[in-house]
Structure formats: C-alpha cells, structure tokens
C-alpha cells in the first residue's frame, strides 16, 4: 500500500518531483478528487514550473477517467484558479509549489466556489482512496476543454477597486519569475500606473532569487529598484502570486499587519459595521483599528482553511494574515494578493501623502517577525515556556493556536509548533524594538535551552 503521509500536508499536496510526486501518482490523485467532488467538471490551472504542465495533464486524465469533465485554464496564479472556481461554480486544482524551490511541485484543491479542501475537508479522504487504490470507473470518460480566463479575472478585480481617478503612480513589481509576470500586466493594463517590471519572465528555475518575499533577502532587488527609479511603491509576489508584499518609496517593507489594517478600513468604509478576520499573529493594532472604525474584529488560528471557515460563519467582509495572505468575501472568501495590492495603490493614489506617511497611522507597535528554532521536543519546550509565565501576575495565556502569552504591559508573544518540521515558531510584539528584543531573548533562552 502506498504511503502518502510525506506529501499530503494540512492544506495541500506537496513534494519533490520524480521522487515523491510523479505523473502516475498525480493521475490517481485526480481520479480520487473526481470521486470526492463528483461532476460535472473540474477546473485545472498550473504555474510556470517545468513539471507543472505534465502533472496537470496527468491529473486531468485521472479526472476524466472517472467520467468528470475538465476545463483547463492553463497558466494561472493561484488566485486566478480560485476566480475560475468561483465564477464557474466548479471544484478546482492548482498545480504549484508556491515559494518552494524548483524541484518541488504540488496541488492546491478547492470545491466549487473556491471553498478550501484541507485535511478535515477532503484531503484525508483523497489520501486514503489513493493509498488503497482508486476504484476503476467503467462509464464514459469525461471531456477536456480549454478556457482562458485571465481577461475575466483582471476585469473582475477592477470592478472591486476603482483606480481610474487616482493620481499617476510609479510602481515597481518584482514577480520573482513567478506567475505575477503573467497576471500583473493584464490587471494593470489601462490603469494610471507606470509599471516598472522586474523578473516578469516565467521561469520555474527562479534564476534571480527565490520567489519567497517573506525572506528579506528576496526583497533586496525590489528595494534597490524602487529607490533607483523614484517609485511611489514596490510590490513583490510569491511564486504562485497569491501573496503580495509591499515596500514604500524608501524601500522599507510595510508589514502585512499594516496592510491588513489599511484594507480593513477601506472595506469598512464600504460596509460599516462589518466583520474583519485576523489571525492571532497579526499586530494588536489590527483589532484596535477595526474597532475604532466601527467594525467587529474576530481572531482566528493561522491557516487559510481556518480563516475561510470563520469568514463563512461570521459573514466577514475581509480577513488578513501575518504571512501576507488577504481574503475577500467578494472574491469567494479566497486569498488574493493582487486585490490587496490594488487596494494599497488606490489608497495611495487617492491622496497626496507618500506611502510611509499614509501607513503610519496603521503601525503602532514593534514586532520581531517569525523566528524559527529547531528543537527535539516541541511539546516539552512549549510546556517549559508556559510554566515560566503561567504564575506571573497579570499574565494572560491562551492556547487557541500554540501558546499565546500577553504580559501586563501589553507586549505578547505566540509560540507555535510546525506541522511538518521539528521547529517552534516565535512571534513577539511590544511597544518598541528594545522591549521586543528583551522578550524575544527571554523566550528563546527557554526554547533553545
């Protein structure tokens, strides 16, 4: 019996091509997905990795072999696939390994309307079906057709954010040789934006830098170009272009928490009193600002399946994560960095202040960013940290997702175990950099022994 435990993750399938992931396995995954979701059709897209077209074709063969049709949208960003799933009201499969190195690939799956498929919502069933052998379908095969949805995607995004009357902006975009190079030109076409492109050539070997803007090393080229050309802002997309990172005119990064607060305020202006979702690692400034603008902040665990579930339950209009995933009710509750980027440019272009000044009101605290520690005993180290703070006066502890500890002075930290690696992930926030450093060092001293 096959063992897929190494590649079926919490939210997707991901592995090294040729070693963990091949066309035979992907064909069976396609067949299992077709049996899970039923007909009439599945929409399939893929990124620019060398292995993606072949894997997408094999997946489509598995789907059609179960009597279900496939609509291929070809090259796509992940949010373009979500758009297709929402617009066509069909389940979808996106072939990408996001920001992982070139030898990896994977599959992000969703039900009709871009509803997520994770371990608890279908992935475990797919894994079990493939491990035990997908039943053969003896009926008529499904058909394969092609449909280009890039124009519809771009037009739809532009109906959600009006940039037609903003002042002219110069914007550098670093696509990292990923799918932003495919989607950005179409989305920005006709807008009052002078686009300065960087690494728009689709190349799954990532010749310039990893397509992972979460790593500061991968923002260096963008920061330099923004300063060189005197741009108003810079945008960096990850490999499958579902996440977007922002830098200001000086090249300084604007935190995803700040972007979350800014977009939340814009969405609340359209729908006063609305609910905004934020995960527990976003800055305290997010719920504060949401409340000040008449909204209702709702805190949730990290991860897109939790965000999307909470959005559905609460009717939330928007949600943001510390990792630069941004979710919109009007985009089928799916995450789209492109729509968040358009909101930032609209906010910038509707007034005369530079981005650094515009975002100053949304940035209230200092933060450490995510710090990873390799540990042998995740549970033991977590327990040691909990014990160190549990009895202190005025300390509040919750375990919604890992361990969150809030101190009497308002500073806080979250410590979470990685699902896939022997890591503990630490995030710290406090009133200033000195306080962040002191709390960070105190916690790491316990974590790292």
UniProtKB/TrEMBL annotation:
It comes from the Bacteria. One of its GO terms (biological process) is carbohydrate metabolic process. Its cofactor is Mg(2+). One of its GO terms (molecular function) is metal ion binding. Residues 8-131, 151-251, 259-365 form the Alpha-D-phosphohexomutase alpha/beta/alpha domain. Keywords: Isomerase, Magnesium, Metal-binding, Phosphoprotein. The keyword Metal-binding applies. Pfam families: PGM_PMM_I, PGM_PMM_II, PGM_PMM_III, PGM_PMM_IV. NCBIfam families: PRK09542.1 (NF007088). Belongs to the phosphohexose mutase family. This is Phosphomannomutase/phosphoglucomutase. It comes from Longimycelium tulufanense. The lineage of its organism: Bacteria, Bacillati, Actinomycetota, Actinomycetes, Pseudonocardiales. The gene is manB.
């Amino acid at each position: 019996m096959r063992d897929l435990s190494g590649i079926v993750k919490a939210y997707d399938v991901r592995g090294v091509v040729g070693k963990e992931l091949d066309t035979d396995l992907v064909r069976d995954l396609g067949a299992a997905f077709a049996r899970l979701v039923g007909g009439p059709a599945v929409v399939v897209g893929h990124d620019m990795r060398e292995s993606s077209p072949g894997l997408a074709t094999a997946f489509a063969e598995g789907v059609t072999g179960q009597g279900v049709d496939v609509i291929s949208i070809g090259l796509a960003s992940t949010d373009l696939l979500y758009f297709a799933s929402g617009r066509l009201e069909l389940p979808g499969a996106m072939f990408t390994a996001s920001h992982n190195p070139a030898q990896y690939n994977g599959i992000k799956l969703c039900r009709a309307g871009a509803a997520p498929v994770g371990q608890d919502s279908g992935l475990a069933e797919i894994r079990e079906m493939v491990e035990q052998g997908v039943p053969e379908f003896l009926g008529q095969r499904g058909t394969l057709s092609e449909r280009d949805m890039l124009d519809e995607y771009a037009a739809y995004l532009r109906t959600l954010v009006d940039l037609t009357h903003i002042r002219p902006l110069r914007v550098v975009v670093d696509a990292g040789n990923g799918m932003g190079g495919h989607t950005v030109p179409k989305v920005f076409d006709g807008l009052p934006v002078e686009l300065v492109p960087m690494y728009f050539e689709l190349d799954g070997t990532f010749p310039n830098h990893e397509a992972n803007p979460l790593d500061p090393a991968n923002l260096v080229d963008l920061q330099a170009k923004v300063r060189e050309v005197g741009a108003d802002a810079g945008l960096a997309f990850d490999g499958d272009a579902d996440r977007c990172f922002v830098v200001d005119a000086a090249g300084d990064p604007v935190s995803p928490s700040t972007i979350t607060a800014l977009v939340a305020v814009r969405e609340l202006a359209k729908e006063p009193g609305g609910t905004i979702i934020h995960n527990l690692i976003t800055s305290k400034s997010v719920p504060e600002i949401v409340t000040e603008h008449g909204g209702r902040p709702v805190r949730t665990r990290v991860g897109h399946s939790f965000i999307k579930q909470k959005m559905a339950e609460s009717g939330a209009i928007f949600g943001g994560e510390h990792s630069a995933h941004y979710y919109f009710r009007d985009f089928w509750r799916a995450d789209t960095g492109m729509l968040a980027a358009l909101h930032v440019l609209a906010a910038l272009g509707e007034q005369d202040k530079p981005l650094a000044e515009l975002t100053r009101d949304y940035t209230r605290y200092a933060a450490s960013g995510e710090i990873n520690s390799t540990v042998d005993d995740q549970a033991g180290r977590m327990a040691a940290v909990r014990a160190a703070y549990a009895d202190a006066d005025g300390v509040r502890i919750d375990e919604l997702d890992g361990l969150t500890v809030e101190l009497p002075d308002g500073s806080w930290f979250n410590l979470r175990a990685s699902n896939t690696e022997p890591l503990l992930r630490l995030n710290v926030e406090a009133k200033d950099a000195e306080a962040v450093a002191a709390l960070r060092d105190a916690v790491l001293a316990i974590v790292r022994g």
